[in-house]
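Quick question, first post here. What does this chain look like in 3D?
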Amino acid sequence: MSEPAPNPDRGQTDRLIKQYVEDRLSLSAEELDQLIEALRAQPALAIELRTQLLLDDLLAQKLAFDRRNFLAQVGQRIGDFEQGEEEIYSQVSELRALAEAELVEKPQHAQSSRWTMAIVAVLAVTLATLAFLAPQYWPVAPRTMAEVRDVHGDVFTVKGEQRSLVRTGDSVSTGILYEVVRGAHVRIEFRDKTTVEFGSGTKFQLVADRKSQAKLVQVDQGEVVAHVMPQRDLGPMVFNTPHARAIVVGTELRLIIEPEQTRLDVTEGQVDFERLAGGSPLRVAAHQSGVANQTGLVLRSLQWPDSEDRLLFTFHDSGIPHVRNPETGNPRETPLEERGPVRTIHAGEVYAFDGGSYYSPEAGEDLVANIRGKGAFTIETIVIPDSVYRVKNARILALGDDGEMANFQLLQRNNDLIFKLWTDGSKEPQELKLGEVKPDRAVHVAIAYDGHKLVGYLNGVATSELDNIRSGLATWNTGALSLGSDAGGKNVWRGLICGLAITDHALADFEVVRSAGQYQTLYARRDAGLMWDNLMADDLDPTRFAGAGNWQIVDDSWESEAVADAWFGFGPDDLKNYDLLVDVNWVEGDGPLKMTLPIAKRPVSVVLGKSGGEQKTALQDMGGQPMTGTGSMESEHSLPQGRTARVEVKVRLLKDLASLDVTVDGQPWLDWKGSPDKLPEVVSTNLPALKKPVLVTAGNVVRIEALKIRDLNRMATSAIGQ
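> Answer (accepted):
Ran it through. Tokens below.
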């Protein structure tokens, strides 16, 4: 009898049978029809398929696996043991062979069958155990958790030998190591608006939680600042370091990871802080700090400067600095002399420089004696520059400064901060460029000198250094300490000094990071209220503001022509509670200047006369009548001729009471309080922009050298939104 001819469709039929056994849902309707026709035509194939299904059921009973996902499950659970796909198929083939032998085995081979069943059972138990235990030790699949919002400097992802630059907009996934190089920082944002900033020299990675969507961050070194939104059902956010664990539900915090300890500073809320080595956890509240090291956990209140043991100079709450007596080693009060328009604000914690300076020969003498004896120092100060225009070597801080030489100078040169240090026998100073600053933005500045190396920092990040300085400080001359100018009152600087500390040794990098972080934790919100929106900072185009009078850019200023209807609009519309700062230089003309200021959408007029002119300071409603309400006025005041005057305005609006204060060069000129409802409404006027503050220059030539606004309502809303 001849053999049947080979069926050309057998290969296709075998594929359909295999696909049906492996994943019957993957077959289309057309493929199912083809398989049914083939089984009808060849009953032997139907018997073979039935055998395959029986084997499949037997494997399911013995291994308790869903056959449809069998290979995927095996691959997942065996993958961590580095078995390839061929080994998986080999295991499956062996199991099939054993099951098939059991299915067709004759009764007389019962003993062999029992051995076979035992082997299959052992394999089944082994695989089931692996299925249960192995996932606890396998890496969790990476998942995207956050996005890079801001990058300064070089930040890398590290995968073995491969390093890739991180850019704004990149996704941040779990299991990837990030390295922030010295001088750089990166800010990431999670889906719930939680933000985390990683500072200079930080190494970190996000870790996937096996059981939840909770945020886990592993930080090996560096600095972390986090604003954590309420986590609700996600579980607490956890920061792990080599020493401790910070468990956060929702708060603002800073972590600083040093070689021997981890420090947690809390701005708002509460954080549970526990040591990895064990022991009872601490609950760290707002304005508290926790430190975890090898010996345990320590809780204390935050302060800046961090330690008073080695302080040579610092501000005090009373506004009177404390300087170390070089003979006794004890701090003593040393008042500063005022020269020109300067003042202290916030209970003496902040020094404001409006064209004047502070000066103290006694403080300078003590500082020189102390620093010469140690041959090292660190200066820390927080400054808010007033401007970056027309600033030529303005002195922020100097010791023994005669205008040309000094022991040291911290100065601003346009938008650059410069530190100069004179050492023994040197006619030329060691000059360190610290970096750029922005007007009306606070910056923490630190300069550390250890006798050989000079390092500069901005906001805790090392920006520049000079090595191999061979001469010391033994020949420093005794001289005065001056703030805001040199010792002779020249090279004047304008701005705010929010804090100043000088110590008798050079702080290490991580100590500067820690100190900058502590200051920010304690005072960042206070300093935010001191900063202005500088309307001349980024764009000097005067046409951005409504006005008339052909205003032109002259030497980084705005200057009007002598046009009768000239005026200039300041800032946004519909201000309620606001501060206004204008530096005005009256170039030509004799007529008065007028400022119209909105109070509850009802403008008033401040008349500013020029020195030598007949018109004096006055406050009027828009009808030209005296203001109803109560107030005081220095009517003899007038704007100076031939120099710039700083005019500051404060408008406050409560439910049924408004107030207005005007100062010039820091001196009070007028103040008023009254009901805004009693101010006359303005029906018509030739000024088209009475919704905002307006300077009416009329036929005078006026130069505006600074223009700033502080919208207190917007700032309050923004703070709540954060």
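The chain has nine helices and 49 strands.
Residues 42-136 form one domain.
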